[in-house]
Amino acid sequence: MGVFSTTGPETAGHEQVVFCQDKQSGLKAIIGIYSTALGPALGGTRFYPYASEADAVADVLDLSRGMAYKNALANLDLGGGKAVIWGEPDQMKSEALLRAYGRFVESLGGRYYTACDVGTYVQDMDIIARETDFVTGRSEAHGGAGDSSVLTAWGVFQGMRAAAEHAWGEPTLRGRRVGVAGLGKVGRYLVGHLLEDGAEVVATDVSERALDWARQTHPQVDLVADTHALITSDIDVYAPCALGGALNDDTVPVLRAKVVAGAANNQLAHEGVEKLVADRGILYAPDYVVNAGGVIQVADEIEGFNFARAKQRATQIFDTTRQIMRLADADGVPPAAAADRLAERRMADIGRLRTIRLP
């Protein structure tokens, strides 16, 4: 993937990609700003041991683009960005490294706001915030929003309700069998919402600790050995809540669910998978639409966090998902394509207003 590649009719590559290095602390970071058409770019920092620099670049470019679309459809006045720190967090993470990274974020002058992602946590954001004001997702002790998985799960549940309405006529999972792949922080909250709504839940996770949690907390949840066993079982809804690429050439042909709606990012393994999903009569709720509750939560922190306000905004994911399903039907395209069109339209329409000069 090239930095200057054209990715769509309304967008032509990334605005800015910054490489950051502090040799003494071991910091090697890349910050990708895809678009600031709607406002400062917001996206988390991923701390991950990539196999190569090329892999790190590809990830930050892909993730920052996704954040632009996610923030646009979450109705936020924020653009899209993402950062990656290249390395093994358990071995390399230190106060010096995080503060060095914070100074690089500060050097961008507010073009980019960072937050948590894979390998980084609220405590890390508190340390980064000692060097920059452009950080969110901080701990409640420091005036932040705390764990963003709370509203991520709530938003996924709302998107799933909208997809259920489109598929079966009612916005509820009551009586439906939902397969949850991944019982991390988001998956655990999602299971709770599903059970409260009257759904049957079958789940899996690679972590024995996560499975033990399910056995002790929700003994009524059926647990299966792996994701293949999950997706080939008799389920109505598939909720990928772990790694990306859940929908691929191997899984789509054997998937038995009627609806896919989950928290994982980048669920479509490659371009064209959305058509394979649609051809099988499976309704896919675009991941960056339904999992936007977390970014809504941390974005609310920028204006002074209010949980009730943030939850109300995350609840609107139901309406956005419903709108995308209807647009997809009207245009005769998969929901993923409809979501992209809607996001690009908002970036173009609202971004155009920046051309009106102010005194």
Quick tags:
single chain, 359 residues, alpha/beta, Rossmann fold, 2 domains, 6-stranded mixed beta sheet, 6-stranded parallel beta sheet, 14 helices, 43% helix
Tell me briefly what this model is.
The chain has 14 helices and twelve strands. With 359 residues, the chain is an alpha/beta fold.
Walk me through this protein's architecture.
The protein has 359 residues and is an alpha/beta fold. The protein has 14 helices and twelve strands. Helix 3 packs across helix 4 (122-128), helix 5 (149-168) crosses helix 13 (317-331) and helix 11 packs antiparallel against helix 12 (307-315). InterPro entries: Aminoacid_DH-like_N_sf, Glu/Leu/Phe/Val/Trp_DH, Glu/Leu/Phe/Val/Trp_DH_C, Glu/Leu/Phe/Val/Trp_DH_dimer, Glu/Phe/Leu/Val/Trp_DH_bac/arc, NAD(P)-bd_dom_sf. Pfam families: ELFV_dehydrog, ELFV_dehydrog_N. Residues 146-355 form the Glutamate/phenylalanine/leucine/valine/L-tryptophan dehydrogenase C-terminal domain. It comes from Pilimelia columellifera subsp. columellifera.
> Which consecutive residue ranges, at least 5 long each, have pLDDT under 50?
6-12
Question: Which range does the strand content fall in?
Answer: 5-15%
Order of helices and strands: EEEEHEHHEHHEHEHEHEEHEHHHHH
* Helix amount: 40-55%
The main pleated sheet reads as: 6 strands, mixed
Tally of DSSP helical segments: 14
Computed CA radius of gyration, to the nearest angstrom: 20 Å
CATH superfamily of the largest domain: NAD(P)-binding Rossmann-like Domain
Distance, first to last CA: 40 Å
The quaternary organization reads as single chain
What structural category characterises the helix and strand content? alpha/beta
How many domains make up the 3D coordinates?
Answer: 2
CATH architecture of the largest domain: 3-Layer(aba) Sandwich
CATH class of the largest domain: Alpha Beta
Shape: globular
The whole-number mean of residue pLDDT values reads 94
Count every beta strand, where a strand is a DSSP E run of 2 or more residues: 12
CATH-derived topology of the largest domain: Rossmann fold
